[in-house]
Amino acid sequence: MLAGLTVLLVFQLAGEILAYSLGGVVPGPVIGMALMTVTLAATRHVESLQTTHQRTIATSGAILANLGVLFVPAGVGILQHLDLIRERGFALFAVLLLSTVVTLTVTVWVFILVKRLSGGYADE
């Protein structure tokens, strides 16, 4: 488990370094995850790395199995700031609702654009 966790943290560190050097355009963990995906895909047939791949997958599974525990600090933070939620609750709700609608709309339009560019509607 320690080897798998080390691999995960090394890729996150590499992502953070790249994100910092790029000016923070993309979050470091996202860059690290992309780097890890490319590396795992490129080296999946290298037998000497099979054990590392398996340990990383096992560690990822253990983290995902206990993901609920990671939400406890957020819940505690919400309970500690109930006065702010009472005071600004409507604004928070409006922003969450608006951002969800905008995200879904942009997602649909991007999907339609990609579908058209890839010739997906040619059959119809």
From TrEMBL:
Cellular compartments annotated: Cell membrane
Keywords: Cell membrane, Hydrolase, Membrane, Transmembrane, Transmembrane helix
The keyword Cell membrane is annotated on this UniProt entry: yes
Extent of the signal sequence: none
Keyword Cell membrane among UniProt keywords: yes
Superkingdom of source: Bacteria
Pfam families per UniProt: LrgA
Membrane topology of the entry: Multi-pass membrane protein
Membrane-spanning ranges: 29-46, 58-78, 90-114
A GO molecular-function descriptor: hydrolase activity
Protein name: Effector of murein hydrolase LrgA (UPF0299 family)
Source species: Rhizobium paknamense
